[in-house]
Amino acid sequence: MTTQAVSAQFGLNTGEQVNMLTTVTDGTESEVLTSGVVSAAGGVSAQSLGTFADGKVITQIIQPPAAATKIVYAYISRRGEIAKVLPVVSGIVVSQPLPCAFRLQAGDTLRVLTAASNTSRAAAYNVVTNAGVQAIFSVTPTGAATNQLTHILTGQTIGESLNGQIIASHFFNSTDGAKYRGGSALILSDRGLPVGACIAVSQTSLQVSANMMGLCPIALNFQAVCITTS
Length: 230
Description:
By secondary structure, this protein is mainly beta. The chain is 4% helix and 47% strand.
């Protein structure tokens, strides 16, 4: 199996900077720990994000989680749930710092999934709802088809996961956008009609971050899909 280094940097409300750096195995969701090599004095020992900064607030994403080839998704995990979805970037793209407001707790971890190639077709749809729920839905298309994105933790559809909630912001990470109908992920109603959409952004060209276009309410039998031409 291939491996690669994943890095990130966060600014805290205390004025501290948290540098994250870990070598992870491609295709396996992994934790990224604090870096122990950020200064001549050795910085801090490698540890979980929440352990290092318990009770402190991430106010700035100085560098989003980045890898040399591709990060499919990244998030902060709390008690086995997605507490905060994060923007991602490829190492070949200059990243843009972003504001943030997220208070860390002991036990919080930074989780990522990387791919060995930046042409990997793995795609991830990241969602924040009006109820504050954060979720990631993923799929890896293999040909011309209607590909349903399912929750990375539960395997549920978007309707099963977010029934009765409204998407407040979202972003869709994919290098496959040219093969998608409409170039986007679509939210289909229980009648199979598109009621929402999120443009596919390739991290090899642009930083992937949240937008508020194409939002919609979610009902039980709704699906998130990407319709591929090949």
